[in-house]
Amino acid sequence: MTAVAGPREGAGARARDGTERSGAAAREQGDAGRTRRRRLALVASKGTLDGAYPPLILAATAASLGWEVGIFFTFYGLDIIHRKKHRRLKVAPVGNPAMPVPVPTLIGALPGMTAAATAMMRGWMKRAKVPTVAEFLDIARESGAKLIACSTTMGVMGVEAKDLVPGVDVAGAAAFLDFAADADVSLFV
């Protein structure tokens, strides 16, 4: 994950009227002195099982803390919100140095190794009582998180709105950037 420092980062932040406030005060106070909810903007770009969990866990956690949350699904991240694909996400053992059992590239390329790595991760999640990707999507929707599919990427990849799980909005990068411009935390996953 790559953190992107927002305008409110650091010891202080400059308000729209030019005055400086502490970082906490800047986060808690919005336009016209009203308090506002903290905001999390996430970009999900990986369509693997191990790439789906970080943005969904962060979104669910932030929403449970009362934060406003938006996840922008782009490129292979669209698989996370694809009706047919989100339940079949996989973990690739090839070129994955984080695998707990070191798997040489040649062995990882053997038939069945992706299925084995995927089954291993699903087992870990189940034993840890972590919700599935489908359950996390339900949690996100129920908590009010905005799930946004990148319209440009949808066109490139031939994905249509009917291919997406219910509750997903379709918007372009400009719309998400507008949301992210006021985020307290922005992450590219």
Q: What this model shows, in words?
A:
The protein has 189 residues and is an alpha/beta fold. It folds into two domains: 1-36, no CATH class; 38-87 and 132-188, DsrEFH-like (Hypothetical Protein Ychn, Chain: A, 3-Layer(aba) Sandwich), CATH 3.40.1260. 35% of the residues lie in helices and 18% in strands. It has seven helices and eight strands, in the order βββαβαβαααβαβαβ. The chain has helices at 23-28, 49-64, 105-108, 113-127, 133-142, 151-157, 173-180; strands at 2-4, 12-14, 20-22, 39-44, 68-73, 146-150, 168-171, 185-188. The strands form two sheets. The protein has a six-stranded mixed β-sheet. A two-stranded antiparallel sheet has the order 2-3. Strand 6 (146-150), helix 6 and strand 7 form a beta-alpha-beta unit. The longest helix is centred in the first third of the chain and has 16 residues, at 49-64. It is globular. The termini are close together.
Question: Helicity range of the residues?
Answer: 25-40%
Structural class: alpha/beta
> In terms of per-residue confidence, which ranges show pLDDT below 50 for 5 or more consecutive residues?
1-27
Instruction: Outline the biggest β-sheet.
Output: 6 strands, mixed
* Radius of gyration (Å): 19 Å
Q: Going by CATH, what is the homologous superfamily of the largest domain?
A: DsrEFH-like
Order of helices and strands: EEEHEHEHHHEHEHE
In the CATH scheme, the class of the largest domain would be: Alpha Beta
